[in-house]
Amino acid sequence: MGVASHSYHWMKTGFRPAKSRISRWRVEANRIIKRCESLKKMTDDRLERYSLELRWRAKSGEPLKKILPEAYALARESAWRTLKMEHFPVQLMGGMALFEGGIAEMQTGEGKTLTAVLPAYLRALMGKGCHVITVNDYLAQRDAEIMSPVFNKLGLSVGTITSDLEDEDRRTAYACDITYGTANEMGFDFLRDRIRIGASAPGQLEQAISNHKTSGKEPLVQRGNYFALIDEADSVLIDEARTPLIIGLIQPNDAASVNLFRWSNRATHRLESEEDFVYEPKKRSAYLTDQGCRKVLLMPKPSLLDSIDTERIYKQVEQSLVARFGFLKDRDYVVVDEEVVIVDESTGRMMDGRKWQDGLHQSIEAQEHVPVTASTGQAARITVQSFFQNYSHLAGMTGTAALAEKEIRKTYKVSVTSVPTHRPCLRIGDPPRLFKTVQAKRMAVVEEIERIRLKRCPVLVGTPSVEASETLGDLLAMKAIPHQILNAKYHEQEAAIVKKAGEPSRVTIATNMAGRGTDILLTDEVRENGGLHVIATEMHTSARIDRQLIGRSARQGDPGQYQFFLSLEDELLRCLETHQLERIIESAKADENGELAPSWISFFNNTQSFLEKLHRKQRRDMLKQEKHRIEMFHKMGLDPYLEWTE
User: Fold this and answer.
1) Is 519 annotated as a binding residue?
2) 426-597 shares the fold of 18-208+218-247+382-418
3) Nearest CA-CA partner of 568 in 597, 602, 542, 604
4) In 10 A of CB 384, how many CB atoms?
5) Per-residue pLDDT tens over the stretch 256-286
6) What are the sequence ranges of the domains in the chain?
7) Which of 52, 69, 106, 509 could form a disulfide with 110 if both were Cys (CB 3.0 to 4.6 A apart)?
8) Is residue 380 within 8 Å of 633, Cβ to Cβ?
9) Which numeric CATH code is attached to 426-597?
């Protein structure tokens, strides 16, 4: 689906499911709202006792499906008493879709955080724990803080898992009825518990856990995997699925290894592309030619490298080439306090504690002239797909699931259901504008920002990287245009920046940090002037990421507009061969402002589609490998998530 057809495709078709299912949920939602009337007269103490009664019934074996109307009515009334927020009928319908299993597609701004309270409360009545999973620590803490009063009034406890917690605090958080956290943190806790349990065949896992509890050893952190409710489900289940969760074994670098990383980085600058090596941008891989191998072999080397075999030297030079040509500072990573920190493409956030494998991270450290950290082996690993298959019940919600419906259904064996919006969507999409050079594009973006500010409307400018956000910020500063930048470097100011982003004439430049889970509240003046304007300065590798950014405007019936500004020097096109892209740019005919004909949009759409297919294939291949690996470990009677050696 291309940029040019976004507005029509989303607003007209809506990816409607079977009418019968929606009709059934709508009728039940109206019944729940009527049931809420009888709860208005209850005191807070009586409301909590009623909740305890429901918990007793659930634990006594009464089907949760039968308890659902009462539970949802209770949760709705509690939300009103604590937050002055009542679930709309479509939110109750979304809650039913989530309880019945699968992914609920709810458009951006439809109140997914409040909707999540419904199935989370109902499943938590079983006393087995409910995990509400978000895409980052910020959203986990924010959602838990906002929604805790709703659960507390009904007698349930709430915990939050963040990256800075110690094990004892994690146990306390998991012991709560509802626990908020990220897939990464919960997945790593799952792996660490498997390491604590030790070797066990899959069929003997329950016995191994029981033996561990009575052994006097360090207790497990998690108490089980009963129910997972995933916010921004497509980001977690699809975008993060190409990166397995790996717990590393620290392998301290000796002096020879550090020398190898640094020497290999220098060696890449003495090699000629195509003659000595071939870099494949689509695969982000590099290999030395025969001539390149000979050149590397004959290069002067420190004496410390005499102890390292030639094959390892070749492989490390190839990794250094990948680091040099495939990974860009302030796009793929940032350097903070002399440390290389990975930046997640789909969320724009720093991934503290994560490292690239097989010497790639150390290659980038050598390239950036910062201390080279210890290499890591593997103690345990799990893919996102395998992790969520350990839950007895799985549900998720997002505004962009339908674009990945086929893959979600095939991989996770769950359906995708589209929930109607509470109010009609008023989002207006302007035709994309295309330019030959990135500089021409940026100047046009600055002019557009100036035009929108004169209308007293706020502008949210989406950029693909930290570098791009700061470059555009410099251009605005030259024009004396006030603005705020939200990227991985300024994550601590996120809440304050977002809070003001909906004010008249406010300009916010953001990476994908402002794409998911961000509510930009508008003033009455802004609504009257046309709402929030979103300018997308590039297309991402997935149309779903683009759609998340666009979805910041025109939320909950508010007006809003969006427009794409693209150039032939955009990062999206770096997947193409250099010589191929250079020929395309050279042949492009632009006007005096560097602007191209509208027909060029098909080139961008086709490139994005190519990358989406490539990434789908990579996820599919990884899933096949994982299945084979698990089957092999099962046959040997070993835990498939632990790394085994002879």
Assistant:
1) yes
2) yes
3) 604
4) 26
5) 888 999 999 999 999 999 899 999 887 888 9
6) 18-208+218-247+382-418, 255-374, 426-597
7) 106
8) no
9) 3.40.50.300
Whether residue 345 has pLDDT greater than 80: no
H-helix or E-strand spanning residue 326: helix 310-326
For residue 415, what pLDDT is reported? 83
Of 76, 10, 16, 13, residue with least CA distance to 420: 16
- In 331-467, where do the E strands start and end? 333-336, 339-342, 375-382, 393-398, 416-418, 426-429, 433-435, 459-462
**Conformational region of residue 564, where left means phi above 0, alpha means psi within -120 to 50, and beta covers everything else:** beta
Supply the pLDDT for residue 227: 96
531 a known binding residue? no
Q: Please give the structure tokens belonging to residue 589.
A: 């005919």
C-alpha dist (Å) from residue 183 to 233, 237, 346, 406, 511: 10, 9, 14, 22, 21
The reported pTM is 0.78
421 is in an annotated binding site: no
Is 109 within any annotated ligand binding site?
Answer: yes
CATH 3.90.420.10 fits 255-374, yes or no: no
Q: Say how far apart CA 395 and CA 226 lie, in whole Å.
A: 11
With 0-12 / 13-18 / 19 or more C-beta atoms within 10 angstroms meaning exposed / middle / buried, residue 634 is middle
Read off the pLDDT of residues 218-246 as tens digits, 9 standing for 90 and up. 788 999 899 999 998 888 888 777 677 87
Give the percent of the chain with pLDDT over 90. Answer: 53
Alpha-carbon span 61 to 59, nearest angstrom: 5
389 is in an annotated binding site: no
Given a cut of 60, whether residue 290 has pLDDT beyond it is yes
